[in-house]
Every structure is written in structure tokens, then in C-alpha cells.
Amino acid sequence: MVKREDIKIDVGEAVGVVAAQSIGEPGTQMTMRTFHYAGVAEQVPTGLPRLIEIVDVRKEPKKPLMNIYLKPELVKNEAKAKELAEGLEEVSLRKIAIIKESFVRKDIEIAPDVELMKYEGLDVEEIAKRIKAAAVGKVDVVDGKIIVKPKSTALKAIRRTTSKLRDLHLKGVKNIGRALVMKDGDEYYIRTGGSNLEEVLKLPDADPKRLYTNNIKEVEKVLGIEAARSAIMFEARQVLEMQRLDVDIRHIMLLADAMCMDGVVKPVGRHGLSGEKASILARAAFEETIKHLINASIKGEEDKLVGVTENIIIGQPIPMGTGTVRLSMKRGKKK
């Protein structure tokens, strides 16, 4: 039998409510100061905006970033870190060429910048090959310029092709716009503006064990649900600690567990945990009341009244604390 003193929390304790209150109250009081990483000329959301971003599980953070650490034997090699950083930055066609579309000639003219091409180690023929590989239409090189004749001469098709060409990836790691060498103690690492975990993991000089990205959905896609759970915990705790708010890790763990329990990261809201509750009344009490009640009526759903919200709505004791105990009395005949 379990001894009373060995139990870490009482049976029937409202752990969800306590966790929500413990994170929600300091989150509401959180200051709105912005903070940016030294050297990266992009403000990274912190405080309440970042906390909302985490619990909403946005497809991509407003400012994705990565910390890329080098392998143990290279951590003190500044030259190697700079070399790796230079090779990381994405070079798209718009960065090294002027792209003009002609609705009269029904073609697109690409005029590469000679100096930028030399700096990036590219040439016109190579760029033309990449454009051909993108299968956007007929490609010709005329007087150092690339002329693209789209497959369709419709104006919308020309505009779509132009947009596709502007974002055409030529060099570096896709989605990484900027890479800077930083120093922590006596070791060098790289901080990037933008994130691409899958591609960076393939780099031979990067240490995969210490690789960091603030993009939770990317962590889930590449490393799985357990890694995503750890990422949610780390990011939420980092936001709170940055504002000097002391929240017990168990509350954050409960939030991360609830978001990841079905094998995919779900947001806390009508499109996630709150909108998928088993109880009809609990769903209706949160948002879109009429929609939930009508859908339940159409399907003939039944509410088992096992949660907190639904019991409060109908005026019953909630199944927590003393409400977890049910007593029944059997009346027998007197002898």
C-alpha cells in the first residue's frame, strides 16, 4: 500500500487548473520589452508574443533562428567557423540578378550582376542550367543575359514564373538568410537568421548533438514528437526565465505533455486541445458555442459529465478534491 507521505500530490488535485494559473498569471503580467541577439539585426520575439507563438504552435516562428555548434575538435577554430557561416547563407536569384518581365515580348529577362556572381562563385551558364532544371520554360543565354520564355503566354503565368525565379535557390542552405560567427567563452559557434534543421544536420563540421532551432514544428518533423515536447518545455521556460518569472518546471511539463500526447504537436485553442475535448459542454463553453451544440445534436452525441467545466455548467459537484469521493448507503432491514 502507498504511504501518505510518499505521495507527491493529493488524489483529486486540480493539476490542470494549477498549471494553467501558474503559467497564465505571470504570462499576463509579463513585460513587453523586446530583446535582440547581439550581431543579428533582427528582433526575436520574447515575452508574451513568443509564449503565444509557442502555445499556438505556429507553422514557423516570426523570427526563426538556429545556433550551430561545431564538432569538438573545431570549436576553437575561428577560420573554420567563418568558412562554414559563409557557405550557409542562401543565395537566391533575386540577390545576384535584376529580373524584368516583358508583357509585350511575353518573356522574362534576367541580368546577373557580374561582381556578385564572382563573389558567390557562380557563372551565367550555371545559373541558366539551374533555371532549366526548374522547368519554367525555354531558356536562352544572349549577351550575358538569360531570356526565359514561359510555357504559357498568359499574363498571370508570366507573373507566377517571375515570382518562382526570384526565389530560385542557387547556393547555401535554403531559408537561411544570414549567418554570423559568435563567441561563447573560448568556443565559436554560428547563429543564423532563418532555420533549416534537416539540411544543417547533414553538414559534416556541425555538431548534431548541440544543434538548436526555435522552430518547434521543424523539430517535430525532423526529430519526432519527444524532441518537440522537449523543445516546447525549453522554449517556454526560456521565455519565462528571461522575464525573471519563476514557474515550476512541472507546470510547463504538463502543458507540453498535453500538447504532444496524441503523437503530433497540437495548439492550445479551438483548433487543438480546447476544440477537441470529449465533453460537448466543455467545447461549447470555450468558443463557437452554437456550432458545437448544433453538431452534437445532429450526431446525437452524449456528454458523460466526467470533467470540470461540464459539471459546473449543470450545477453538480466537480470530480476534484472532495468531489472525487462518492458515497452510497445500503439500507437493510432491522433484525
Descriptive report:
- The protein has about 325 residues and is of the alpha+beta class.
- It folds into 4 domains: about 90 residues, PTS-regulatory domain, PRD (Orthogonal Bundle); about 60 residues, Alpha-Beta Plaits; about 80 residues, 2-Layer Sandwich (Gyrase A, domain 2); about 50 residues, DNA polymerase, domain 1.
- The protein is about 40% helix and about 15% strand.
- The protein has 14 helices and 10 strands.
- It has a 4-stranded antiparallel β-sheet. Strands 3-4-6-5 form a 4-stranded antiparallel β-sheet.
- A hairpin with a 2-residue loop joins strand 8 and strand 9.
- Helix 9 packs antiparallel against helix 10.
- The longest helix is centred in the last third of the chain and has 18 residues.
- The protein is elongated and about 115 Å long.
- It starts with 14 loop residues before the first helix and ends in a 21-residue tail after the last helix.
- About 5% of the residues have low confidence.
